[in-house]
Structures are given as structure tokens and as C-alpha cells.
Amino acid sequence: MAKQRSDNEMIANRRQKLEALRNAGNDPHTITKVDVTAHAADVHNHFEDWDGKSVRMAGRLMAKRGHGKMSFLDLQDSTGKIQLICRENIMGEDVFAIIRDLDLGDILSVEGQIMRSERGEISVSAEKVTLLTKSLALLPEKFHGLKDQDLRYRERYVDLIVNPEVKDVFVKRSKILSGISRYLDDHGYLAVETPILNTISGGANARPFITHHNTLDLDMYLRIANELYLKRLIVGGFDGVYEMGRMFRNEGMDAKHNPEYTAIELYKAYTDYEGMMQLCEEMLSSVAEDVCGSTTVEYQGQTLEFRPPWKRMTMTEAVREYADVDFDTIHSDEEAKELAKKHNIETKPTDGKGKILQYFFDAYAEEHLIQPTFIYEYPVEISPLAKRMPNKPDMTERFEAFICGSEIGNAFSELNDAEDQRGRFEHQVALREAGDEEAGMMDEDFLHALEVGLPPTGGMGLGIDRIVMFLTNQTSIRDVLLFPTMKPIGKKDEENQGF
After folding, report:
1. Does position 52 have pLDDT exceeding 80, yes or no?
2. Is 353 helix (H, G, I), strand (E, B) or coil?
3. pTM metric for this prediction
4. Which residues have C-beta within 8 Å of that of residue 172, sequence separation ≥ 6?
5. Per-residue pLDDT tens over the stretch 338-366
6. Using CA atoms, how far apart are residues 99 and 74, in angstroms rounded to an integer?
7. Dihedral, CA atoms, 46, 52, 58, 60, nearest 10 degrees?
């Protein structure tokens, strides 16, 4: 209670200082522009070029010490911190008086010369300090910082100020995104944009968010994938297209899932899923080297090697290795269900052998896939948009990429047989009518596009947030999203307690 009262008094004191400035005609918020000529990181990294030069810098006051006629301030800009040395005999009594009323969090500009202090610290010998914005809130204490995870996500702006390592994660995130785009641009892909609001939920199996279009009086779905639109563009004559953007899935939240997330989907005419494998491993290897300085990345005690070639296993091989179960010897849905029962794996009445193979993979194999690995040859039953394997018609030319037991990507040779595609859509519709909210819907326009003619095509989707997690050594998706989805303060959520 005493601390709260003290905090309230300090906040009130800040407001009084601002009011006094306004009454004196010195409202700092009327200043609209600062011609910054130097940044902290540049000065620190290239001191020999800046020593003795006059500069103008701007940033936030993070520390203040000293007394009498000399003060030391720590100014933090977007690149780092630098010390300001403020002396009354240099600044003059009136200008130096400004220093006394500054509070931590205030935004300032400073004019002065670059120098080293008597202790050798690179500093600015201040000649003029100008208050640009008065901070009316208290920053977390220096030695305690902002540690509460929930508060960090809700007040990301404070998190970025007081935890510099957080800013580094998002600088890397930006480099990862731009690196992926640059790689695809350099390899003949065209960046495009497709609708976020869809009249049907398609392109993946997931529970959608539903909204309402007032003018059309029509329920619409926030996209769960942009696949079907991008393949329409291949039909239209583009050889390679991609789109990176937000996707929305109205499902659970945990350390690897956020309802709103960033993904990229890309499609290339006249290639297949093996071409997508090669693109995936070469692109992510290139990005890792650009962002992390090496294809070898440390992640939570694991050393990950992104350099091609990545390990490759079929889903059946993975289940055989890690569950000691050979699905090549299972010939019916009934046999698969009996096997699942013996292994205490729950199934649904609508599940067939292919779906049950996936259950075994999820239960036994996935957690063992630490190094970047491609799992390929997926059952038709769980791959409604992938092309069948010519020699195994119950399997598809599909793969998923895994790192540390987490899927980061999904790809396949695209199904371009309109009649086969209609049959698979009809199966999805039957599943939906049986109560499966994640099953797909019928898309007549997409079927018409296939009838116009889709060339042999390889396609891939990658989860950007998970890739960023692995390349920045973060264990929660919330730590790589600037503004993760949060439940309202005070609302209990039993399902997500502790997340």
C-alpha cells in the first residue's frame, strides 16, 4: 500500500511538472521535429570517426545520476544507449536547470560533442538538452525490470523499452521475413495479395472465425489459408507466386499456437513436392546463415543444423521406427482401429486407416524429430488437396517439415485432377455434416479453375512464427509476436490457465 501511495505521488508530481511547463509557455509536446545526426550504436561502433564531432541525438532517459553542478544521463535510442555528461559551466544555469526536473522515461534531444569520459566511457558532452515528451507513467525499476510475462505481452511498448533483448528478437524477425521474401523474389516468384475475408472456409482443415458482411448480408470467414486463391493464379498463367500474411484459426492457444499468426504459401508451376523440399531446405538454410551468421543454430540446448540435405522419412517409416508398428501390414480400417485400441489411441467412427496412421505418428514419432526433417508420403484421407502417388493410390505426394518435434511447413504436389478433387471435397463435406468443424467445404469456383486447367504444380506453406522461434531461441510463440492474442484482464480461462 505504501509503495502504491508513493507511486501515485510520483505520477502526480510528473503531471505537476508538465502543467508548470505549459503555464510557462514551454509545452514540450509542441515540438514536432528533431534533425537527428547520430545514433548510439554508430557512435559506439565507430568512435574514431565521431570523436570530437558535434552531434544531435534523441531518445528516452533511462538513468540519471550525479548532483550539484554535474549530472550523468543515460539516453536510449532505437539502437542502444549512450551517456550524456551535463555540466552547468558548459550548458549555462538556465539550460542546466532543465536537467533537475527530468524524470526517467522522458524523451529528450541533446546537442553536444562526442568524447570519452574520465573513466573512458564513450559519451556526449551536452551543450543543450531539450525535453520533447514528458513521461507521465513510471517505468519498471532498474533492477527488477518488467518480469511479469502477462504484463510484458500486454504492455509490449514497455517491454521493448526496458528489455533490450526483446527488441533484438523482433529485429531478427524482420530480417527473417525480408530474407524469405528476397530469396523467393530472386528465384522467380511474384509476391501477390489475396482476400482475407472468404465466402467459404477452404485451403486447410481448421475451425474458422466467422464474421458478417453487412452490405451483402452474408456470413464470411477469416481465411485459414490462402492456398485456393494462389492456385487460381497458377491456372491464370503465373509460373510462381507467394503471399506472406496473417491467417486465422479459431482453435486452442498454447506455446506453439496463436489464433492469429503469420504464414507464407508459395506455388510453382511445373515442379512437385520434391522440388518444394529442395526449396525449403535451401531457403531456410540461406536465411539462417544471413540472420544468425551460420547454418548451425543453438536452440534450448540443442544444436540444429539447417544445411542441406535434411533427413527424409515416410510417415509409415517413422511410425515403424518409433512405434514399432508397420502400417504396410494393415489392410483395412477395422484392423487399424483394433491396433489403435491396443495402443490406447482414441479414434472416431469416421476415421480410416490413413487418419489412424497419423494418430500413431503424432503419438510416437513427432517428438523424436529434433533435427530439420521431412516426413513424406501422407495418406489421401488427411490430404484432400494433394496429388496421389502413382504407385500408391492411397498415399499422396506430400511432406511436412519438422524441427524439435514441431511442424514448420506443409507441402505437396498439387492435385490438378478436377474430378478427383470434387470427390475429396465431397468427403470433406460429409465429415463436416457428421460434426467435424475442421473439415473443408465445397468450392465450386476452385473446381471450375481446375477444369480450366492447373499445370503440374508444387506448393508449400510455412509457419513463419515457428521458424522465427527456432532462429531466435524462443520457446513460446508469444515471444515472437509483438502483440499476441490475450484474454481480457480479469477473465478466467480454465483451458489456457498458466499459458
Report:
1. yes
2. helix
3. 0.90
4. 291, 468, 471, 472
5. 999 999 999 999 899 999 999 999 999 99
6. 12
7. 80
| Residue for grid cell 509557455 | 25
Residue 439's nearest CA partner among 379, 360, 382, 357 is 382
**How much is the average pLDDT of 457-479?**
97
* Biggest CA pair distance of the chain: 91
Give Rg (Cα) of the chain. 29
Give the C-alpha distances (Å, rounded to integers) separating 363 from 57, 457, 496.
Answer: 56, 32, 22
Question: Could you tell me the three cell numbers for 278?
Answer: 529442395
Helices (H), 215-259: 227-235
Percentage of the chain beyond pLDDT 70 is 96
DSSP assignment letter at 414: B
Distances 307 to 7, 285, 292, 437 between C-alpha atoms, Å = 53, 5, 13, 39
H-helix or E-strand containing 164?
A: helix 164-186
Question: Cα-flanking dihedrals φ and ψ of residue 296, to 5°?
Answer: -95, 120
CA 334/CA 329 separation, integer angstroms: 13
Compute how many other C-beta atoms are within 10 angstroms of the C-beta atom of residue 496: 11
Query: pLDDT (tens digit, 9 = 90+) per residue, 433-446?
Result: 888 888 888 999 99
**Does the pLDDT value for residue 134 go beyond 90?**
yes
User: Sign of the CA dihedral 264, 268, 273, 276?
Assistant: negative
Q: Which three-class secondary structure state does DSSP give residue 54?
A: strand
Q: Which residue has the cell 520457446?
A: 475
Unique residue bearing C-alpha cell 548532483: 67
- Alpha-carbon distance of 201 to 429, in angstroms, equals 11
d(CA 480, CA 405): 18
- Whether 5 has a pLDDT exceeding 80, the answer reads no
In this predicted structure, the answer to whether residue 2 has a pLDDT above a threshold of 70 is no
Type of residue at 394: D
CA–CA separation, 377 and 384 (whole Å): 13
Dihedral angle computed from the Cα positions of residues 47, 48, 52 and 58, in that order, rounded to the nearest 10 degrees: -20
- Alpha helices (runs of H) in 387-439, residue ranges in sequence order: 418-433
- Which residues have C-beta within 8 Å of that of residue 168, sequence separation ≥ 6? none
Lowest mean pLDDT among 329-333, 454-458, 490-494: 490-494
SS3 label, residue 291: helix
Q: Mention every residue, 6+ apart, whose C-beta is less than 8 A from residue 327.
A: 316, 319, 320, 336, 353, 357, 360
What are the tens digits of pLDDT across the range 281-335? Answer: 999 999 999 999 999 999 999 999 999 999 999 999 999 999 999 999 999 999 9
Contact 353, 379 (CB under 8 A): yes
